[in-house]
Amino acid sequence: MSKIYDVIILGAGPAGLAAGLYAGRSRLSTLIIEKGKDGGQIAITDEIENYPGQIVEGESGPSLIARMTQQVEKFGAERVTDVINSVELDGDVKKLKSAKAEYLGKTVIIATGAFARPIGCKNEKEFMGKGISYCATCDANFFEDFEVYVVGGGDSAVEEAMYLTKFARKVTIIHRRDELRAAKSIQEKAFKNDKLHFLWDTVVEEVNGDGILSSMTVKNVKTGELTTIEADEDDGMFGVFGFIGTIPNSKVFEGVIDMDERGYIKSDENMHTNIPGVFVAGDVRIKSLRQVVTAAADGAIAATQAEKYINENE
Q: Range of 36's domain?
């Protein structure tokens, strides 16, 4: 008979690790299942400045996550590396199945995260964290007085572009259409902003540089004309922010858990999903701010609610 855990946590990003810490500390038998490296999106972030209590002199995503992982280990959460292919979440015992094993738990916390939709240009991966970013709140500071380009034309792209004008000396929105998709009220503010410029009917084809982003090739979708944009000689680099949406890691739960049309999982403020004993935390749920600090808070709430659920159902 397989062991039945009190809590199974899917994902070892900040939400999953915070949940593991709280569950383990509450003496619940806890299993964390992660398919890759701990940390999720934050694991590829070179520098963090806005996490409360971080090392002020310099904190990277990996260094912060390494300490979170140590804390989780201290309180006894078990770990396994695996990919879950199917789930059965109704009933008192939840089943999570992979190609090689079946995991049983009284409760499940889904902390599978989300990932930024890639810009889709050549060499994009090489310059992630080296000029290309998908989070203005995280990285705007690093582009103070530099030139920055924002790819996208929806609400979030335009709002993030306006936020970036507080830091960068010039922000250019690159949009594949000849008008923005953002709400009219947001557009009005954008067009009044002197630091905001627009490159219409354009997509990014390729990015380049010697270890750091310093040039990109863009294409006019109507004429097919290619243009190479080079960094200012004094700067030696520029930033490109992609805001063409995020994709939640929720496919395995389709048709099982209530989601919105984009695949983000619905929950109440206490991280309850529509299935009793199943909770959600972090970027995979519907929320207004996707940051390490909010993911960690979600994880803490989910774990304490899981404990409450177990106590009430024993």
A: 4-116+246-312
